[in-house]
Amino acid sequence: MPISSRFLARKEEKMYFDKSYLGIPEISGSLFDNKGLVVPPAGFQSEVTGEHNDFSLCQFEINAWEPLKRIQEVLPAYNVLSLMEFQDRCGHIKEKALKHPLIGHSAFRRCHLLLPIPHIPELADSKQLGRIIITLLNAAKRAYENEFSSRKFLNHHASALNGEMHVNFGMRYKKLLTQIAQAPQAGILLPNSLQGYSIQADRAIISFFPDFIFLVGIEHILAIIAFPDKLACGEDTPGLDMAALSGESVDSSFFFWADGYGIDFVCTQKLKEASSVCSGGLLIL
C-alpha cells in the first residue's frame, strides 16, 4: 500500500503563516486561548500558522477503562495502573492544572484524553529507546488494524529506529522517561493543543510551561493504541507530531499521518515548517 494521500499532500502543501501570532502582547494568565490552543508569547521566533478548521479533534466522552483495556491487550508484558488509581491520579492532575495560572480551564476547551502510561523498565537504559519505540509501534499496528480491519498501519522508518535515538530539551523529557521506567503513570494528553506549530516551535514553546507539562514523544504512540477510533479515524484528524524525539540525526523527528485508508508513521527533517493540519501534543503529569 502506498504512502497515504494526506502524507503526500503534506510534502507539497503551501504553508500559510499567520504573522499576527508572532507579535502578540505579553501573556497574562493562561498560555491557552479560548479554544484551547497554545498562544505563542510575544517575540516568539519559530514558525506558527493558524489552525485549519477542517482538521480538528472534538472532545468525546471520557472513559477511563477503555484506554487501559486497549493498552493491556496489545502490551501485556507491561503493567498499568488499576482503574481506581488511574482515575484518582487523573483527577488530581486535572485539579493541579486548573489551579495553575498558566494553564487553567482554557487548556481543556479542546480534546483532552486520560492516558495510561505503562511501566517500561527498559527505558532506564537510554540506548533501548529505539527498540522500545519499535515495540510500541508494533502494538499500535495491532490496535489500529483491530479497530479498522480494512486499513493498514505502515511504519516507513523501522530501520531508523534501530540506531541511536535522541531526546530533546535537556532533562525535562528524560525526567518523564525515567518516571516511566520506574512505575506506571497517568497523564492527561492534549493531542492538538499545538496545532499549527512547527516541530521546532513545539520544542521552543515547552520552556514556557511549568515542569509538570511535557512535550509529547512516545505518548502519541500510546495514544494511538488507546484511542485509534478518535485520533486516527480519518482525514478530519490532524497529523500528530512526536517533537520530543529525534532519530539518529538530531535534525529529524517523527509524526503520524492518518486518512480513510490507513495511518503512516513517518520521519521528517522539515522541522521549521508549520502546518495547520498537524499538531504536537502536551502531556500533563
Short account of what is shown:
The protein contains 8 helices and 10 strands. The protein has helices at residues 5-12, 65-74, 83-99, 129-147, 171-182, 199-205, 219-226, 228-231; strands spanning 113-117, 152-155, 166-167, 185-195, 213-215, 239-241, 245-246, 253-258, 262-268, 278-284. α2 (65-74) packs across α4 (129-147), α2 (65-74) packs across α7 and α4 (129-147) runs parallel beside α7.
Q: Which segments are poorly predicted (pLDDT under 50) over 5 or more consecutive residues?
A: 5-27
**Chain-averaged pLDDT:** 84
Strand content: 15-25%
Alpha-beta content class: alpha+beta
Count of individual domains: 1
Q: Number of helical runs?
A: 8
Largest sheet composition? 8 strands, mixed
Topology as H/E string? HHHEHEEHEHEHHEEEEE
Helix content: 25-40%
Termini Cα gap: 38 Å
Oligomer description: single chain
Q: Mind telling me the C-alpha Rg?
A: 17 Å
Number of strands: 10
What sort of overall outline do the alpha carbons produce when their principal axes are compared?
Answer: globular
